[in-house]
């Protein structure tokens, strides 16, 4: 059984602030270790269920957060950037299941460290007119590749967002948001035991591959900066509905890859701290 694990950082056990998740932050080094422990719990669950091939993608920020030697020896690590497939780099139809560890809620939600991909540079996103953030877009793209998402871990807001998107995905709340930079923390050992148990249970019966939709999807993004939207109109197929909102149509995962190009353009034009 081949398992793919995409790991973000904002939804990791015990982390609540930018200093926990940004390189150079006073608690970042501790955050990296906490990140590895949550991932290792998911790996142990996958191994217990019979997984023999496990790929972990470091999907947060610089994508060099996980310390390789701190990772469970069973797993292979995809590290660094750029990555054409962003948070899903390395995901392939041959994978039997995907697990999302440490995910967070979308921009505008009152979840811990909530945002959509680029701090507050992205104000809103929609996939086929449905509000979406990192959770929904990654889930839809994995489904288009033919891989079911079986577990998501993060704060309670991220878990609610996942359930609203796809109620069949098991969720593990490792903390409960009090506000955007505060949370009621679940004890670390308890949270990791819950992650391990959820992953093992989700893989106990071989997951069913999702139906792959052939119809094009529409992705719409509202940016904080009109400059970003204006520049993106230079990309063939990108249109605008107002000075800060652009959209494009295409099939996933190609649309997800195109969105990665949009973000690289936006990053070249802005210099916004992620959690202002």
Structure, explained:
- Zn(2+) 1 binds at residues 8, 10.
- GO terms for molecular function: aminopeptidase activity; metal ion binding.
- The active site is at residue 115.
- It is an enzyme of class 3 (hydrolase).
- 31% of the residues lie in helices and 25% in strands.
- The chain has 276 residues and is an alpha/beta fold.
- The strands form 2 sheets. The protein has a 7-stranded mixed beta sheet, with helices on both faces.
- Strand 8 (170-179) and strand 9 (182-185) form a beta hairpin.
- Helix 6 (226-232) crosses helix 7.
- The longest helix has 21 residues, at 28-48.
- The protein starts with a strand and ends in a 7-residue tail after the last helix.
- The relative contact order is 0.17.
Secondary-structure blueprint:
Layout: E1 2-7, H1 18-21, H2 28-48, E2 53-58, E3 75-78, E4 97-103, E5 122-127, E6 130-131, H3 134-145, E7 149-155, H4 156-165, E8 170-179, E9 182-185, H5 188-202, E10 217-223, H6 226-232, E11 239-242, E12 245-250, H7 254-269
Parallel strand pairs: 1-2, 1-4, 2-3, 4-7, 7-8
Antiparallel strand pairs: 5-6, 5-10, 8-9, 10-12, 11-12
Enzyme class: hydrolase
Keywords: Aminopeptidase, Hydrolase, Metal-binding, Protease, Zinc
Active site: 115
């Amino acid at each position: 059984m081949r398992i793919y694990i995409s790991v973000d950082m904002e939804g990791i056990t015990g982390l609540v602030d930018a200093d926990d998740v940004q390189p150079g932050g006073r608690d970042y080094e501790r955050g990296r270790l906490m990140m590895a422990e949550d991932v290792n719990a998911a790996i142990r669950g996958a191994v217990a269920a019979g997984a023999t091939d496990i790929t972990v993608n470091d999907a947060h920020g610089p994508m060099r957060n996980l310390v390789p030697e701190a990772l469970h020896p069973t797993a292979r690590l995809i590290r660094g950037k750029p990555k054409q497939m962003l948070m899903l780099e390395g995901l392939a139809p041959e994978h039997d299941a995907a697990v999302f560890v440490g995910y967070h809620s979308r921009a505008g939600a009152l979840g811990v460290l909530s945002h959509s991909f680029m701090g507050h540079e992205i104000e809103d996103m929609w996939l086929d007119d449905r509000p979406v953030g990192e959770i929904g877009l990654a889930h839809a793209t994995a489904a288009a590749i033919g891989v079911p998402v079986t577990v998501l871990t993060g704060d309670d807001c991220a878990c609610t967002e996942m359930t609203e998107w796809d109620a069949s995905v098991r969720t593990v709340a490792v903390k409960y948001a009090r506000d955007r930079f505060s949370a009621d923390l679940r004890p670390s050992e308890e949270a990791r035991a819950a992650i391990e148990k959820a992953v093992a249970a989700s893989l106990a019966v071989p997951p069913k591959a999702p139906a792959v939709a052939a119809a094009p999807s529409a992705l719409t993004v509202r940016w904080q900066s009109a400059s970003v939207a204006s520049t993106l109109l230079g990309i063939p197929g990108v249109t605008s509905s107002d000075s800060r909102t652009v959209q494009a149509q295409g099939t996933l995962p190609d649309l997800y890859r195109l969105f990665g190009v949009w973000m690289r353009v936006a990053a070249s034009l802005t210099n916004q701290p992620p959690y202002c």
